[in-house]
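Propose amino acids for all 417 sites.
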């Protein structure tokens, strides 16, 4: 058994010790007299849950800033998809590690990823010690031959080696109703159901997606996905902006998890998530960053702030998107959406946490730490990141970070044109 003691750290406004045994918080109490393998001095720091980013495309980090200020469909068709065709497993591996580096720096301990070569994403996450739910992004553009190819890729993914299953999970993905044929949606849904897997889908990101679905299928993307059997409590829908009252009732009843991506939605001018209305109708909301190409960073701190501000302006109500609620969706809700017994600091929970520096100017004065985290903090406040009981960052430093960054500087040269 491995053990780690965090001494004299602030938890719920009181100073305490936190004992981690293996991958679990085993005791939280002052003055624990226990011999442990490792000790962290937590004085001047507070312990908080890490963040659970429920929608990302980590392999796209090599495209940060390559094509900004464009409309979503032309951005995808003209700039992103042609460059993605030039990606190799090796580039995706290094780009994913670079994304993970940024996630850890900004306090994230889990990401639900949707990209090509998911076995490479599992490997990168296992090496860096972060939790991941990785999936191949099933997309056939209504081409029958490609649909069959995608089905085979899904099957191959199910059978590929699974490094470090304690922290890495295989999930399945449908890219979107506008890029996946009904045959591919049915197949992926059925495979997820048979294997008891989570299903991750882009849905209702733009008005055009809804309008096209209405004219082609006579129903909204939500109703369409429901007809194809894709909606249940193991489904995570990214974006979910353009929803009518019937969609919302369906999503609430089926306990579908929604992932809002406010920064990406604002940058691409996609639309504004109906935060307060969805919350009041009983929908379960989580938070994600989307990719570095559309965000352009992976900071859940920035994401929380915009989520809160967006909720207020969307409902013209300053009490909407309250800091406590937004912090919960970025932590506990994200963990629970993927079946993790984590997301809060409590005995018996998985030992995922961050230590924040209470002397950092962004956290002073400290009347309400959660408000400070949502509205004021940036990554300089995060000193230490622990995931599954292991230290991933301490004193702001991650092992190998210089090499990971240098590799992306080198690889990015080939995508300039
Ligand atoms: Zn996305």
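Proposal:
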């Amino acid at each position: 058994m491995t053990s780690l003691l965090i001494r004299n750290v602030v938890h719920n406004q009181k100073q305490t010790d936190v004992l981690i045994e293996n991958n679990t918080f085993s005791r939280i109490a002052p003055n624990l007299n226990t011999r442990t393998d490792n000790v962290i001095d937590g004085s001047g720091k507070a312990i908080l849950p890490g963040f659970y980013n429920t929608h990302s495309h980590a392999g796209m980090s090599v495209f940060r800033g390559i094509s900004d200020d464009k409309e979503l469909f032309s951005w995808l068709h003209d700039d992103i998809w042609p460059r993605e065709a030039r990606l190799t497993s090796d580039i995706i591996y290094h780009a994913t590690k670079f994304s993970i580096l940024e996630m850890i720096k900004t306090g994230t301990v889990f990401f639900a990823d949707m990209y090509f070569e998911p076995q490479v994403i599992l490997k990168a996450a296992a090496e860096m010690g972060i939790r991941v739910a990785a999936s191949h992004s099933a997309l056939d553009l209504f081409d029958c031959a490609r649909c069959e190819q995608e089905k085979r890729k899904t099957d191959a993914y199910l059978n590929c080696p699974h490094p470090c299953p304690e922290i890495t999970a295989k999930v399945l993905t449908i890219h979107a109703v506008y890029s996946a044929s009904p045959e591919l949606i049915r197949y992926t849904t059925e495979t997820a159901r048979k294997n008891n897997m989570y299903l991750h889908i882009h849905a209702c990101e733009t008005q055009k997606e809804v309008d096209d679905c209405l004219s082609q299928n006579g129903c909204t993307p939500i109703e369409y996905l429901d007809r194809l059997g894709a909606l249940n409590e193991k489904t995570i829908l990214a974006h979910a902006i353009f929803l009518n009252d019937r969609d919302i009732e369906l999503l609430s009843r089926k306990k579908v998890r929604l992932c809002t991506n406010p920064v990406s939605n604002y940058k691409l001018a996609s639309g504004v998530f109906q935060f307060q209305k969805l919350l009041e109708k009983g929908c379960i909301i989580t938070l994600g960053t989307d990719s570095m190409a559309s965000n352009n960073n992976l900071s859940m701190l920035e994401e929380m702030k915009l989520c809160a501000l967006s909720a207020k302006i969307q409902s013209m109500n300053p009490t909407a998107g309250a800091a406590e609620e937004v912090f919960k969706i970025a932590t506990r809700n994200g963990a629970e959406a993927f079946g993790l017994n984590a997301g809060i600091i409590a005995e018996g929970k998985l030992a995922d946490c961050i230590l924040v520096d209470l002397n950092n100017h962004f956290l002073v004065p400290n009347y309400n730490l959660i408000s400070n985290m949502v509205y004021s903090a940036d990554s300089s406040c995060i000193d230490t990141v622990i995931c599954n009981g292991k230290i991933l960052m301490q004193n702001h430093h991650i092992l190998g970070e210089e090499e990971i960054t240098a590799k992306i500087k080198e690889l990015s040269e080939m995508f300039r044109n």
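The mean pLDDT is 96. The chain has two domains: 3-49+343-401, 51-337.
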